[in-house]
Amino acid sequence: MAQADGATPSTLEPVARPGPRRAPQPLRWRLLEIVTAYLPLLLMGVLALGTWWLVKNTPLADDPRAMAPLRHEPDYEMRKFALQRFNPQGQLRAQVEGDVLRHYPDTDTVEIDNVRLRAVGPDGRVLHATARQAIANGDATEVQLVGQAEIVRDGVDGSPPIDFRSEFLHAFIDTERIRSHLPVTVTQGGTELRADSMDYSHLDRVIKFGGRMRAVFSPRDAK
């Protein structure tokens, strides 16, 4: 086609004749194409979410909340038993007998019905104790006697044995100490003392009474 003089030359290509239109794809195929295109991204997201959930809900090995608290229930019992404790040199320090023994793991204590205790001090003197029930720590160095409690200890330097009686006596075997916050009766020879409370230290040879006290002394022999 001839171009008129003075006309600006065109830089555009001739427009091509439009071809036939493609028929629109069905909706399910378009959805399938979208899902296929984003499937790797969806899988990565699901994997990351699952990993986060596992980390959040996995209990730690040292988490104290994962440990069930111990209940005050016995984990074992013994009947008609006899237990002995020895020092490193092999000498007998204590022997405990009773009808029934129950061990409680939450406090590491034992309860003994109709207890009978025999303890030997470093000086060789012997202590005997009885009660309807006893509560002792794991190594039997501390014993609480409850109900018709009685402790009889050998005397010192030829003196007669000393007898303690009360509804509650607290004996410390290693330190050789006896305490009671309830009324107690102490007898030695012909002397009897009653008080509302007591603290006796065998190592110090000292006995302290609290509250009201009543004493009965026997007359000395004419000799």
How would you briefly describe this protein structure?
The protein has 223 residues and is mostly beta strands.
**Number of discrete helical segments:** 1
Q: Find the structural class using helix and strand composition.
A: mainly beta
* Helix-strand sequence: HEEEEEEEEEE
Find the count of extended strands (DSSP E, 2+ residues): 10
Basic shape:
rod-shaped
Q: Average pLDDT, to the nearest integer? A: 78
Which regions contain 5 or more consecutive residues with pLDDT less than 50? none
- Please estimate the helix content: 10-25%
Largest sheet: 10 strands, antiparallel
Evaluate the radius of gyration: 45 Å
Content of β-strand = over 45%
Termini distance?
A: 166 Å
What does this protein structure show overall?
The structure is a single chain. 15% of the residues are buried. The longest helix has 31 residues. This protein is mainly beta. Strands 1, 2, 3, 4, 5, 6, 7, 8, 9 and 10 form a 10-stranded antiparallel sheet that branches. It is rod-shaped, with a radius of gyration of 45 Å. β8 and β9 form a beta hairpin. 14% of the residues lie in helices and 46% in strands.
